[in-house]
Amino acid sequence: AAHMGADLEKVLITEEEIHAKLDELAAMIAREYDGKDLLLVGVLKGAVMVMADLMRALPMTAPVDWMAVSSYGSGTKSSGVVRILKDLDTDITGRHVLIVEDIIDSGLTLSWIKANLESRNPASVEICTLLRKPEAAKVDVDVKWVGFDIPNEFVVGYGLDFADAYRGLRCVGTLAPHVYS
Ligand code: PRP
Ligand code: MN
Ligand code: MG
Asked: Where in this chain does the record put each Phosphoribosyltransferase domain (predicted)?
C-alpha cells in the first residue's frame, strides 16, 4: 500500500479537533442516556474510528453492536435501496439505540437504517455522526448529534475510505489529484 500522508492534499479536521468534538458529544450523550438502557450501533466499516473514540469518551458501560449494509443495484451507492450484509446480534426491542456514523452524505444509508431499526420496536433511535455534508443531502435525516458540517468534497481518513484505503489516517482530509488519475 502507498504511504497515506503523502497522498493528502489538505487537512480539513485535525486529530485534536476530532477528539475535542467527540468529548463534547460524549458529554451530551451521557446526559441524555443517564439511567437508560443504551445500545451503541456502529455502521461498518466507516464508523469504526468514531465508535472507538466515542465509546471511550462515554462514562457509561453501554454495549456495542454493528451492522454492515450495502446498496443494491448498479454498485454505485445512493440508490437508496440498502441490503443488510450483517445484521445486529442484539434484539433492540424496548432499548434506546444510538446509531454511530462517520458521515452523512446523501443521507440515504442512514435514513434507511434508522427506519429499519425503528420498525423493531426500540424505545428510541437516535443518530450521532461525526461529519455531515449539508449540500449533498438527498433526503432529510433527523440527526441528533453532528460533529462537523463540511463542504461537499470527497474526504478520507478517520474511517472514511477511497477504494477501501486511507481509513487509518488520523485526520480527515482531501486527497491530492494524482491519487485519482
Ligand atoms: C459511507 C459512509 C456512510 C455512507 C454515507 O459508507 O461511511 O456509511 O457512505 O453515504 P450516504 O449518506 O450517501 O448514504 P460506505 O457505503 O462507503 O461503506 P463503508 O462505511 O464501508 O466505507
Ligand atoms: Mn459507512
Ligand atoms: Mg466507503
From this structure: 16-162
**Prediction ipTM score:** 0.98
Parent domain of 21? 16-153
Q: Which of 72, 86, 105 to mutate to test the pocket of ligand 1 (most atoms within 8 A of CB)?
A: 105
pLDDT surpassing 90 at residue 1: no
pLDDT in tens, 19-67: 999 999 999 999 999 999 999 999 999 999 999 999 999 999 999 999 9
Query: Atom 21, ligand 1: which residue's CA is nearest?
Result: 45
Q: State the distance from the centre of ligand 3 to the C-alpha of 132, rounded, in angstroms.
A: 14
Positive or negative, the Cα torsion across 99, 102, 107, 112? Answer: negative
Helix (H, G, I), strand (E, B) or coil at 23: helix
- Kindly report the CATH number assigned to the domain that includes residue 68: 3.40.50.2020
